Task: structure prediction
Amino acid sequence: MFISFEGIDGSGKSTQAKLLVKKLEEGNRNVLFLREPGGTEISEQIRNILLNKKNLKMTQIAELLLFSASRAQLVSEVIKPALLNNIVVITDRFVDSTTVYQGHGRGLHHGGIKGINSIATMGVMPKKTFFIDITVQEMYARRQANHQETDRMEMSNDEFFERVRQGYLELAKEEPGRFVVIDGKQPIEAIHEIIWKEVDGMLPTHSK
Ligand code: ADP
Ligand code: TYD
Result:
């Protein structure tokens, strides 16, 4: 089983992904937790190029191809073999991030992105995607509270993140069977319960 978490920066994806991993491990499930971009030695190197604030000259196409290269490596080196071994794979972001950040956000051609996405994923798609939705205002509030340094992607403006958020809402409408939209302003535990209820229902009963 393959599950991904999506949302704008600071929406609580990693918090929730980690809680889900812990819950599954407590039930003796074999789980693998990965983040994008990253998750393999090569993908982590690509991540550094993508997020480095010094790389302001990076073109939008180069950005698109680097995110996709990182993913292509992750899918063939780690995700595919894990799924073949019946390991539950949980990712903090996946291909939907490219659709909304490079597509809706940067404004790159939708059809072109679709083609590159299918090359990078080789058709491997999450069975469930939890989109944790917060407003752009909330994203800034959380960023300020955390005093964390902004990376190259986070230097984008409000309009960019607004388009990204709307992009996620559109995707969720297009694929209601895969997406679960969750209001990210709820308490951490409440969100975890919603996610757990959904995942628990998907687990094969024989090995519960
Ligand atoms: P992401 O992985 O989406 O960037 P994180 O899980 O790192 O987000 O969370 C970003 C910040 O918001 C962290 O400080 C985290 O503790 C906080 N946070 C996460 N979930 C919630 C929530 N439901 N309500 C309030 N704050 C939250
Ligand atoms: P990261 O710190 O991992 O994410 P978060 O801030 O959500 O914890 O940073 C990854 C950044 O890269 C984030 O701003 C989203 C962006 N991104 C894309 O633009 N396209 C993609 O395909 C992926 C996977 C991420």
In short: The radius of gyration is 17 Å.
